[in-house]
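User: My collaborator sent over this chain with a note saying "see what the structure looks like." That's all I know about it. Can you take a look?
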Amino acid sequence: MEIVAAADSDERGLTLLRVVGQLQRVIVFLHSFACDRSHLWSTQSSEARQGPVMSDEQITKKVREICEELILSQENLKEVCDVLHEELNKGLGKDTNPEATIKCFPTYVRELPNGKEKGRFLALDLGGTNFRVLLIQLGEKCSMDSRIYAVPQPIMVGPGDGLFDHIAECLASFIKERELGDELLPLGFTFSFPCKQEGLTKARLARWTKGFKCAGVEGRDVVELLKAAIARRGDCRIKVMGVLNDATGCLISCAFAKQNCRAGIIIGTGTNACYMEKLEKVELWDGDLDEPHQVIINTEWGAFGDNGCLDFIRTEYDNNIDCESINPGRQLYEKMISGMYMGEIARQVIIRLVAEGLLFDGKSSEILEEKGSFFTKYISEIESDKPGDYNNCRVILEELGLNSATDTDCANVRHVCECVSRRAAYLAAAGVAVLLNRIGEESVTVAVDGSVYRFHPHFHNLMTEQISHLIKPGMKFGLMLSEDGSGRGAALVAAVASRNSR
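Assistant: Without extra context I'll predict from the sequence alone. Here is the result:
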């Protein structure tokens, strides 16, 4: 830039020259700064530098390339099946169980409902930030009454006695409200955390999950802790007849209606599975060998991969989520599937795409940058839109402070969600296929419960499609939604135990 001015005695002319000279230096500085910034950006991401000049088709192609690492091939899934089968064998083996990541705890539940159970039974269902108390009447007329109680955050991370005192208080309130008086009520206790069971009414907590960190509970019998809390109150009569987890409750609940139900799967905040195994394959079994020669195994498969055996399909997003979790290095399979983590996986992918200039013109929002701001329910809602319709997607993006999303942005956000949910469904399907192959019966019903399975619009179909590819030829199966599974199942366990004790 060249400036020419007449130098004379006019003071205004000299002032103008000085101002123009200063402007020249500022322009040169800004140009140099811009070049430096351009160079820096190009060293970080050449794609982001090119983003503004890319066409929608080029952007979409690049987004799909980045998302490819979330897509599992049939070879990947078959390898997952093979590895899971080996890990289950380790869990069931007496010598290999101590080092196994999938613990395969025998539940001591060996009989399923036969439809002849009668009476009134309580169920307590604890597995997350809320728990339910249920009263179930079985017989000619069946009925169910229930109430949900919250577990406040301070109690979730406070002393263990505080948690069980809170539960006992809610139980007493429930019984008083229904005027059950001095009736001795059999109770089934669904405790949906990893436990080592030592009997139908004895289970030691192996470790807390799902955000719980109550001190003084790990390694202790949760039934004894509950009974002690009830005894401290002294205002209700309850007999704990069985303790189980939500997966077992799910199986038992569906078995009441489907006699060929042999497996129960949870795909919600967390994930777990149980299945009916022959006693001869359970080296850990320390009970009697009388009929029936079977027992439900609580796999605790959420820990699948904790020993590194799933590293071949894990991504940078999985590693980030694991590092930022309250239990790094644990529950790695669960962190790829369950509702506690799916939304955050999608958010991390979206954040990367924004940083590379492939979404929202490279502009993020304060809300989107916050960990956990992209809820898993958003994935279900976005995928509920009809193809080419982005109504739900736009509403969600506006909630996240992204008000100028184009159709291309919405389509690419949906693609991210589809990749995350499809991977989760396929991994869950691989797990179910392994259990079906182990059960080995011609026709099996699989009970399924959990918010992800229940509310995602395509999860059931995705699982069904993939299970069909992975099971042995000629086998038939059905996925059955378990209604009130963990609660109703607990009551049914209490009913079966009561029936057998007469």
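A starting point for your reply to your collaborator: Residues 190 and 479 are 22 Å apart (CA to CA).
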